[in-house]
Design brief:
The complex is a heterodimer. Chain A is of the alpha/beta class. Chain A has helices spanning 9-16, 30-33, 39-55, 73-76, 95-104, 148-151, 178-188; strands spanning 2-6, 21-27, 61-67, 88-91, 110-112, 114-124, 127-132. Chain A is elongated, with a radius of gyration of 22 Å. Chain B is of the alpha/beta class. An eight-stranded parallel barrel of chain B has the order 1-2-3-4-5-6-7-8, surrounded by five helices. The chains are: A alpha/beta, B alpha/beta. Bound molecules: iron/sulfur cluster (SF4) (2 copies). One iron/sulfur cluster is lined by residues 132-135, 138-140, 147, 149-150 of chain A.
Chain lengths: 222, 289
């Protein structure tokens, strides 16, 4: 899932301080799961903002809501009849949600309340790690199910680089070496011969290098 | 050196584009450059234009410099990060390349290695700013250099841009970032130039217009169809079509454009012959240069 972290309060204050009426809008999707932008975080942030502006002697109207998803129009449309009551929206959705909200309400300033960080997993509550960079053509079949693009610091497709030490990455000794993980996994699977066939230079057109990406599923269109 | 000095004196300059080869055979390029030595003020060496992999601009610039020829080296944001860009600029500075121009680079998907990853670490404006930072004796991390390079810095501007407003805003950012000369993409009519200069006039810059030698009707048609930002007037195409000696007509057209731009008072021209560098002397003499 998409992982995000709340922006520092000072940064959020800097973005919204000029608006008297602000709607803080959460998303019940990924950012709720990683506890960065769901209704709970909306309430905490709205309370902090109210407190701050009241202490500054300029209280504001700061309201709270959360949408099922901010990456689907039908849920964004639910704001339609109340959005004019606000001067700005602070969205706690991922970057996709913030943009889609702004796309729908073109004259309303929409600000991001979280930093969208990566596609990752929950190692344990409150600890998330990156697993995928959405390269658009998955090569996990060749790498024992461990992604070198997301999990090797150098994004090497034919690792290891030679700098790994006791299973840790030379770039950051706190971090497991992605290629050590690939090696261990291929060994456990009895597929070490994969190392004998180097991966050819990757086609990055399916990643960001081919421009903005789009999926059209004719079978799903109505 | 000579280019900056001549421009400062208000003289009309003539530059020739020297497309590096795809490979290491450079003898032809060197002899063609030597053949027009003295007639052109500097050679512009593109850096993998159209995102087609070729010998680097730095390499060819150094090669020509070693024969005593002045060059304008292109530095491109697409393929190098800020370390590599600065490293190449220091190499150019240390080995006597006086003129550098920053270019953004065509998108990788247009070239012959379309599956590659683009770099684009710095924007064009940041790169231009970076060139000037190096000249102050510091790198982009603020660390002091052992000896600062000295460059005459330029970039690109497109008078035929569909959104001239945005182009002028970009031009202002490039000027603010320290660019002083600007080379246009190929222009085939003075009207495009006039319209642009009317809007851009008064800015402190040297404008060098590119004259592209059309080699055939097919080439003109290709540009019309595929390169939206370059306009080839239909009249020119039919002129080539009707000419008894087409190649001669193409040379004549290029020469007329050179002369027309000179008469219009631009700072100079860049003549691009795309492999027909041996026609350069004919173009220049027909243009009365
Ligand atoms: S190979 Fe690509 S799609 Fe597969 S996990 Fe890695 S980044 Fe994600
Ligand atoms: S040590 Fe391992 S994870 Fe780190 S860069 Fe080298 S191969 Fe990649």
């Amino acid at each position: 899932m998409i992982r995000a972290v709340g922006k520092p309060l000072e940064e959020v204050i800097g973005m919204v301080q000029d608006y008297p009426r602000i709607l803080v809008a959460g998303c019940d999707g990924c950012v709720t799961v990683c506890e960065a932008g769901g209704l709970k975080e909306v309430k905490v942030l709205a309370a902090a903002l109210r407190l701050y502006f009241t202490q500054q002697g300029e209280p504001k109207q700061i309201d709270e809501t959360s949408l099922t998803r901010q990456c689907d129009k039908e849920y964004l449309a639910q704001l339609g009849d109340r959005i004019d009551g606000y001067d700005a929206v602070l969205s706690l959705a991922c970057g996709c949600g913030v943009q889609f909200l702004a796309d729908m309400y073109t004259t309303k300033p929409v600000y991001p309340g979280v930093d969208t960080t990566f596609l990752g997993v929950t190692e344990e509550r409150g600890v998330y790690t990156e697993r995928c960079q959405a390269c658009g053509r998955c090569i996990l079949a060749d790498t024992g199910g461990v992604c070198p693009i997301a999990r090797c610091s150098k994004r090497m497709l034919n690792g290891p680089c030679g700098g790994s030490d006791k299973g840790k990455c030379e770039v950051n000794p706190e971090m497991p070496c992605g290629w050590q993980l690939i090696y261990e996994r291929l060994k456990a699977l009895g597929q070490l011969d994969r190392f004998e066939q180097p991966i050819t230079p990757k086609d990055w057109t399916t990643s960001r290098d081919g421009g903005v990406r789009k999926i059209v599923r004719e079978d799903l269109r109505v | 050196m000579q280019l900056e000095k001549k421009l400062a004196e208000g003289a009309f300059v003539v530059l020739a584009e020297m497309e590096p080869p795809k490979g290491v055979e450079v003898a032809g390029l060197v002899s063609q450059a030597m053949a027009v030595r003295g007639k052109v003020d500097a050679f512009v060496v593109p850096e993998m234009s159209s995102a087609v992999m070729r010998l680097s601009s730095l390499g060819v610039s150094l090669l020509l410099a070693s024969r005593g020829l002045e060059t304008v080296m292109q530095v491109c944001c697409r393929d190098r990060n800020r370390l590599a860009l600065q490293a190449d600029l220091l190499a150019a500075g240390a080995l006597g390349i006086p003129n550098v121009m920053g270019v953004a680079g065509d998108d990788i998907t247009f070239g012959d290695h379309h599956t590659a990853k683009a770099v684009d670490d710095l924007t064009l404006e940041e790169l231009l700013q970076g060139m000037n930072t190096l000249m102050t004796g510091r790198d982009l991390a603020g660390i002091e250099l052992k000896g600062a390079p000295r460059f005459f810095v330029g970039s690109t501007v497109n008078p035929g841009a569909a959104h001239l407003e945005a182009e002028l805003a970009a031009l202002d950012r490039k000027l603010a970032a320290g660019a002083r000369f600007f080379i246009t993409p190929p222009i085939f009519s003075v009207e495009v130039l006039d319209a642009f200069r009317k809007r851009a006039g008064g800015r402190p810059m040297y404008l060098l217009t590119t004259v592209l030698l059309l080699k055939s009707v097919g080439m003109a048609r290709y540009i019309q169809r595929h390169l939206g930002q370059i306009q080839v007037p239909e009249a020119l195409v039919s002129r080539i079509q009707k000419a008894p000696e087409r190649v001669r007509e193409c040379v004549q057209i290029a020469a007329e454009l050179v002369k027309a731009f000179k008469d219009r008072g631009v700072s100079g021209v860049v003549i691009s012959t795309l492999g027909w560098e041996d026609r350069l002397p004919a173009i220049l003499s027909a243009a009365g240069i």
